């Protein structure tokens, strides 16, 4: 796949993720995909690793917490070979009125046109304060 096709796959995945459409979002992922949220200690959604089932659960949790959808806006890209690095900004209003607005840096690795690895850097304290505390 070309780097442009890989970037489009990331956009398609996040479009379905943002809409809370786990079934279709998962079609962009390889069977053995791993999503690693970087942090020293913790469990998803703050940090840790998720497999495909964990990613489906995350999408459903976000849809429940942010029923109008989570906007994920790309602000920068670097792509080479089977890797795409992307910066995003999120925005969403939770059912409790809190605003989730987090900057991200993702590294996506591809195999045969599917995302097989996601490494995520974000403000983990913001995630914890909005979704956990």
UniProtKB/TrEMBL annotation:
<dbReference type="InterPro" id="IPR032710">
    <property type="entry name" value="NTF2-like_dom_sf"/>
</dbReference>
<dbReference type="InterPro" id="IPR037401">
    <property type="entry name" value="SnoaL-like"/>
</dbReference>
<dbReference type="Pfam" id="PF12680">
    <property type="entry name" value="SnoaL_2"/>
</dbReference>
<feature type="domain" description="SnoaL-like">
    <location>
        <begin position="11"/>
        <end position="117"/>
    </location>
</feature>
<protein>
    <submittedName>
        <fullName>Nuclear transport factor 2 family protein</fullName>
    </submittedName>
</protein>
């Amino acid at each position: 796949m070309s780097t442009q096709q890989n970037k489009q796959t990331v956009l398609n995945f996040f479009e379905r993720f943002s809409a809370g459409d786990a079934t279709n979002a998962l079609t962009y992922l390889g069977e053995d995909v791993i999503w690693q949220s970087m942090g020293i200690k913790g469990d998803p959604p703050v940090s840790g690793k998720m497999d495909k089932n964990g990613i489906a659960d995350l999408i459903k949790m976000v849809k429940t917490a942010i029923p109008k959808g989570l906007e994920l806006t790309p602000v920068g890209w670097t792509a080479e070979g089977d890797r795409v690095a992307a910066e995003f900004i999120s925005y969403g209003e939770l059912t409790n009125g809190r605003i989730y607005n987090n900057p991200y840096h993702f590294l996506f690795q591809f195999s045969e046109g599917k995302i097989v690895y996601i490494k995520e850097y974000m403000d983990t304290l913001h995630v914890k304060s909005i979704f956990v505390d």
